[in-house]
């Protein structure tokens, strides 16, 4: 048997094997450039994952280039690549300078018969040969029996024992089609661990929404590691989400890991933007609403003690709590929202503000922060609410073979400014030009930009919502509807910036 090469550090820590750049990139419709893959790998390393599955080397030249670049980054995380149990795939991994290969072959009857068209003996021989080939090339090997959880158990154990004999360093149990339950995962992990004595990983898919529960059950049954992805990306319904897995382990099971939880949210955002897959708002830990509160009863509780309606402090995962105006909101919540901006209405004014915003919400519209502040300005009739940024005009040049360019003219706190910027499209160019002028006065970045079509057709009425964040992490949202999305975007952006500035005026910072 060849020497095993498993890193022994942090033995009491659950090992987090991130496969965002491999299984995650297999999310239908997602492809990223080699440069983007490197950027994501750097973020994952900063986050503290123990292993990064950088990709599937054999699939393309670009993939090889990306994996090689990641392998050469000198990251703290171990970097590995996926290879079918065939020499050409393993050779491709070696060409990427990888020292760690995740090799796999399916062991379930359905995969062997209909996909591989191989007998069980041929599969077993192929698995052993692949592991031996890796070991002869000095690689660390993690062996996965694809569709392990739907495989004949006796055959699965036979394969795992054979690859252990051949020198595999780690074994992975994939629940490839997310078909199993936590009880089943616990039981299979125990059996494979007892039969082989090797460190076990679990790789759980989310087809029945059980991926995280299954991964945790595997860990509690003695698995050392779980394969997870940022935002739960991955084939079909995705993989176990890193964020949910890590926070549940830490908060509900008191287990240790190496993840810097404060970086979870920004990593999730980065991956979402890079891979172009929006996170559902009600997703645990990282969804927009995970730390947002609207109902009067909840906000009242939260204001008195956040633990009433929050299981963990948002800061633990790099987030901030936010309150939402709307028809369920009560006076306590609206007062707290306004206080954030330094706005202190009288009881009478507060009642009127709450009433007015409920009337708008009753028409089926979400109330943005900007709208709530405008209502308050009207009710309180306070000159400080006057807008600091006034748009004179803007124009855009765009078209095929032209770089979209915007010129914006506006007045900021009594002074006239003009700025031009280029962008990936007309909206991007215009918003960048506005940001250029707003500069130091309102040092903001755009956190979200959403476009909804209200009516159909090419003359559709569209609603643009922008969420901007100042340097202290305060978020302001503003919406504008119109037939021209560039105009609506510029107006929403101006509105949001004005409200960021209002906060500073009322807190007398400018
Ligand atoms: O889901 C799966 O079975 C996989 C294997 C390649 C491990 O992703
Ligand atoms: Zn998978």
Outline the secondary-structure elements:
Blueprint (H helix, E strand, L loop, with lengths): L14 E4 L15 H14 L3 E5 L5 H11 L6 E7 L2 H9 L4 E7 L2 H8 L3 H17 L3 E7 L6 H13 L4 E6 L6 H15 L3 E5 L6 H10 L4 E4 L13 H12 L10 H12 L16 E2 L2 H9 L17 E2 L7 H10 L6 H16 L6 H12 L8 E9 L7 E8 L2 E8 L3 H13 L5 E10 L8 E9 L4 E8 L2 H22 L4
Parallel strand pairs: 1-2, 1-8, 2-3, 3-4, 4-5, 5-6, 6-7, 7-8, 9-10
Antiparallel strand pairs: 11-12, 12-13, 14-15, 15-16
Helix pairs in contact: 1-2, 1-10, 5-6, 6-7, 7-8, 8-9, 11-12, 13-14, 15-16
Q: In a few lines, what is going on in this structure?
A:
The chain has 510 residues and is α/β, with parallel strands linked by helices. It has helices at residues 34-47, 61-71, 87-95, 109-116, 120-136, 153-165, 182-196, 211-220, 242-253, 264-275, 296-304, 331-340, 347-362, 369-380, 426-438, 485-506, and strands at residues 15-18, 51-55, 78-84, 100-106, 140-146, 170-175, 200-204, 225-228, 292-293, 322-323, 389-397, 405-412, 415-422, 444-453, 462-470, 475-482. Helix content is 40%, strand content 20%.
CATH homologous superfamily caption of the largest domain:
Aldolase class I
Unique bound compounds: 3-methyl-2-oxobutanoic acid, zinc ion
The count of strands amounts to: 16
CATH architecture of the largest domain, by name, is Alpha-Beta Barrel
What value does the average pLDDT take? 93
What does this structure look like?
The strands form 4 sheets. Strands 1-2-3-4-5-6-7-8 form an 8-stranded parallel β-barrel, surrounded by 9 helices. Strands 11-12-13 form a 3-stranded antiparallel beta sheet. It has a 3-stranded antiparallel beta sheet with strand order 14-15-16. The mean pLDDT is 93. Helix 7 runs parallel beside helix 8 and helix 8 (211-220) crosses helix 9. Helix 2 links the parallel strand 2 and strand 3 (78-84). It is elongated and about 80 Å long. The protein is of the alpha/beta class. Helices cover 40% and strands 20% of the residues. It has 3 domains: 12-275, TIM Barrel; 292-385, Recoverin, domain 1; 389-508, Double Stranded RNA Binding Domain, CATH 3.30.160.270. Bound molecules: 3-methyl-2-oxobutanoic acid and zinc ion.
């Amino acid at each position: 048997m060849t020497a095993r090469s498993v890193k022994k550090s942090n033995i009491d820590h659950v090992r987090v094997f991130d496969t965002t750049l491999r299984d995650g990139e297999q999310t239908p419709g997602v492809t990223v450039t080699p440069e983007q893959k490197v950027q994501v790998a750097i973020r994952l390393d900063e986050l503290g994952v123990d292993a990064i599955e950088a990709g599937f080397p054999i699939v393309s030249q670009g993939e090889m280039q990306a994996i090689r670049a990641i392998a050469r980054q000198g990251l703290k995380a171990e970097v590995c690549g996926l290879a079918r149990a065939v020499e050409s795939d393993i050779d491709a991994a070696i060409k990427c300078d990888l020292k760690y290969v995740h090799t796999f072959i399916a062991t379930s009857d359905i995969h062997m018969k209909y996909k591989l068209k191989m007998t069980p003996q041929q599969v077993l021989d192929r698995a052993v040969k692949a592991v031996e080939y890796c070991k002869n090339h000095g690689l660390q090997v993690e062996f996965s029996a694809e569709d392990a959880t739907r495989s004949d158990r006796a055959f699965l154990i036979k394969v795992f024992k054979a690859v252990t004999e051949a020198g595999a360093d780690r074994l992975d149990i994939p629940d490839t089609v997310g078909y199993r339950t936590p009880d089943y995962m616990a039981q299979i992990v125990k059996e494979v661990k007892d039969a082989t004595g090797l460190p076990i990983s679990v790789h759980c898919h989310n087809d029945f929404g059980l991926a995280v529960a299954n991964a945790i059950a595997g860990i509690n049954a003695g698995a050392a590691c779980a394969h997870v992805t940022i935002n739960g990306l991955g084939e079909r319904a995705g993989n176990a989400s890193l964020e949910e897995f890590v926070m549940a382990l830490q908060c509900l099971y008191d287990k240790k890991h190496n993840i810097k939880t404060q970086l979870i949210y920004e990593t999730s955002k980065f991956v979402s933007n890079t891979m172009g897959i929006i996170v559902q708002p009600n997703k645990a830990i990282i969804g927009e609403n995970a730390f947002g509160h609207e109902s009067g009863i909840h906000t009242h509780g939260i204001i008195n003690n956040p633990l009433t309606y929050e299981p963990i402090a948002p800061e633990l995962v790099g987030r901030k709590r936010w309150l939402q105006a709307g028809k369920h909101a009560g006076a306590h919540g609206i007062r707290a929202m306004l206080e954030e901006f330094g706005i202190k209405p009288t009881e009478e004014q507060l009642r009127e503000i709450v009433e007015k915003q409920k009337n708008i919400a009753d028409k089926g519209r979400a109330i943005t922060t900007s709208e709530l502040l405008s209502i308050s300005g009207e009710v309180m009739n306070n000159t400080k609410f006057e807008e600091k940024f006034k748009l004179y005009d803007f124009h855009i040049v765009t078209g095929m073979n032209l770089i979209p360019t915007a010129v914006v003219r506006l007045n900021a706190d009594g002074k006239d400014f003009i700025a031009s910027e280029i962008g990936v499209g007309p909206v991007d160019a215009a918003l960048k030009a506005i940001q250029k002028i707003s500069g130091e006065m309102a040092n903001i970045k755009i956190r979200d930009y959403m476009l909804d079509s209200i009516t159909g057709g090419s003359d559709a009425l569209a609603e643009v919502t922008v969420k901007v964040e100042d340097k202290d992490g305060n978020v302001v949202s503003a919406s504008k509807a119109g037939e021209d999305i560039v105009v609506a975007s510029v107006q929403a952006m101006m509105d949001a910036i004005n409200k960021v500035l209002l906060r500073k005026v009322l807190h007398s910072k400018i």
